[in-house]
Every structure is written in C-alpha cells, then in structure tokens.
Amino acid sequence: MTPDRDIRTTLEAADLVDALREVVAIPSFEREEEVARWVADQLVPAGFRATETPFQPGRPIVAFRIGSGRPELLLAPHMDTVPPGDGWDTDPFALTRKGTRLHGRGASDDKGPLVAAVFAARALAEAGLPRAGTLTVLCLPAEEEASQGVRAFVREPVEADAAIVCEPSDNVPCIAHKGLYWTEIAFEGRAAHASQPADALSAIEGVRLALDDLPAFSAELAKRTHPLLGPATVAATRIDATGPWNIIPSRATLGVDRRAVPGENVDRIVPEIAERVRALGWPGEVSARLVEFNEPAETDAAEPVVVAATAAASDVLGRVVAPAGFTASCDMWVLRNHASVPTIVMGPGHLAQAHKANEFIDEASLRTGALVYARAAERFFEISG
Ligand SMILES: [Zn+2]
Q1: If you measure from the C-alpha of residue 364 to the centroid of ligand 1, how many angstroms do you get, rounded to a whole number?
Q2: What is the pLDDT of residues 42-72, one digit of tens each?
Q3: Tens digit of pLDDT for each residue in 158-170?
Q4: Residues 169, 41 share a domain
Q5: Checking phi first, is residue 146 left (phi over 0); if not, alpha (psi -120 to 50) or beta?
Q6: 2 falls in which pLDDT band (50, 70, 90)?
Q7: C-alpha span between 183 and 180 (Å, rounded)
Q8: Which residues surround ligand 1, an ion (CB under 5 A)?
Q9: Which of 6, 65, 183, 364 shows the greatest Cβ crowding within 10 Å of its Cβ?
Q10: Which of the listed residues 253, 279, 294 is the one where a domain comes to its end?
C-alpha cells in the first residue's frame, strides 16, 4: 500500500473515541503529567523519543520526536484544561455520547485536538514517515494560564521550521489571531463622608469619564482592521471601588480588555490607553497598568505549513478551504513572534465549546482532524524536504 492509503486505513480503524475517553478522564487543570504519560504510552512504542523541558513540578513540557534533522514540524497541543466548573448535565470527566456529540471537559479544548495529533503522528510513523526531517508532537502545559508553558519552552532556542498549534478550529487552518491586553486604569480622588459630597473628589466619577470615552475610543480602533480578524476593539470588563456604604471612595479602577490586530504597534497599546485617560480632564491622579497580555500574531499565507495544511483540509473536508483567522488567543503568538517559527492554528472541535459546561466535540470532527493533521504533515515534508 502507499503511505497515503496506509495512513487513512490506520486512522479509520483507530479507536479515537476510546482514546479521548481515557484522556478526558485525567483531570489536568492543575497537573498535566498524567496526560504526558498517556501520550508517551502511545508514541514511545512507535519509536518517538521523548525530551522533557523543565517547567513546574508535575507539569512537564514534553517533545516527542521521530526522524532526524530539518525540516522539523511541530504539532503542538496543550495538555491542560480549564477547571470543570458548574452546570454540567453529565460527569465532566466521563466522556458521554449524545448522538454524534461526545461531551466532557476538554473534548474540544484541547483533548480532542491532542488525541487527533497523537494518532496522526503515530500513523505517520507506522507508515515510515517522515523519510527526511523530524516530526514532533510538542505537549504543552499551562496554555490556559496565559501560555506559560510555551513561554518557558521558547526560552531555549527552538529549531523548528513550522508549527501547527492544535486547537479547535473545525479543522480549518487559521493563520492569524488577535492579541489581548488586560489593562487596569486607576483613578485617585479624595474621599469624603457620603453626607458631605461637596468635599469629595469621587474616583467613581473618573471611571464614568473613561466609560463615556469608550465609544469614541472604539470608533478609532475600528479603523485598524485586519482582513481575517476584523477590527481592534476595547471593552470594559471590570469595575472596582469597594468600600463602606457611607464613604465616597478615593480610588476606583476600571478594567479594560483591549484586543489588538496584527500590525498594531504592541509597544504602544498601554501608553495609548494611558494618554487617552490623561486627556479626560480628570483633576486627580490617573494611571494605566498592564495586568496580562498575549500578542497578536500572523503567518504569511505563502509559508509551506499554510500551503500544506490548506491543501490537506480541502482534500479531507471535500471543499475549498481558505486560511482563516482564529478568534481566540492561544500559544501561536509565542512560537511565531518569540521563536520565529511559521505557525498556524488548526484542529478538530469547536471553539464555541471551549470553557463551557457540557463541552463537546463531534465524533466526525475528531476523526477528520486526525486525517487532516496526517495529510498536512505528509504534504509539509513533501514540499519543504
Ligand atoms: Zn485551547
């Protein structure tokens, strides 16, 4: 048989649902080591070599490699999930079928993509691929904690020539995502007893000024538009001015979630907010502080990994697939911007399911995903080998 037929036959016969059941049963929102052991059980007997990068106790970063030399392609799923949360109709750690849907925490984000990537890699290895170059399954922890795992991974030089960040995208290759910048704006005023409001400079009034300015700020950001991602945005997400009922507060903060598009000057995101709030005419002190961020990222559509993944998705899905934008943030920007690896986001499952009660993946999406990964990798090694 040709490797192509081999791989399809192997993946069609593979018990992906049972595998997903095993991985979903491992709670991995604080420790990922058991997931890493599960991956090792699948890949090491097939000839993959495991290399661990230290991160935190019980939370390894593990690269499983087969083949040698360049080019090297990374398939990079994350092993952690968000905590189960409330509102489930079934046990979030017991994969439950309802029709074509498989419910469980991580079914779409990110254990479905992880299982699909592991099975695709193993099927490729069993078919004797890659003939030249290295295929690596990079299992990352702490993606849900501001991509800390991949941030630790890129502290050492990364040799890879391309990466597919395995996240739920309905198997469509995504070549760009927005950045997020959580910024706390703090207003300082003068406290007074609530019975003497004339003596106060209420910090809450500062927050009001900033909120009143948001539509104008949004309109300005709307001019910065990316063809795949739409406009840059800003939204108020937190207000804090807690204190006694009878005291007008001297301090109040407004939290804003600012989404940046590729091409924006990321060094200017917070200074721009700071300048804007200083121009509000607030008579007291005002400051802007970055609390957390993920940069925006984009990969050129002409990169071999994009060409390979687009051809693979079109072939397997049976329709013309065009590269899209990914609406959430993920590990892509760290590999793309800080390790200079041409990176895309692609995987089975549905982003709308991520982080929700009753999270599910469609069985067909999971099965298709494994084949898309295998075909994309095969094609990548063909065109860049
Ligand atoms: Zn994810």
Answers
A1: 19
A2: 999 999 999 999 899 999 999 999 999 999 9
A3: 999 999 999 999 9
A4: yes
A5: left
A6: low
A7: 9
A8: 109-110, 167
A9: 183
A10: 294
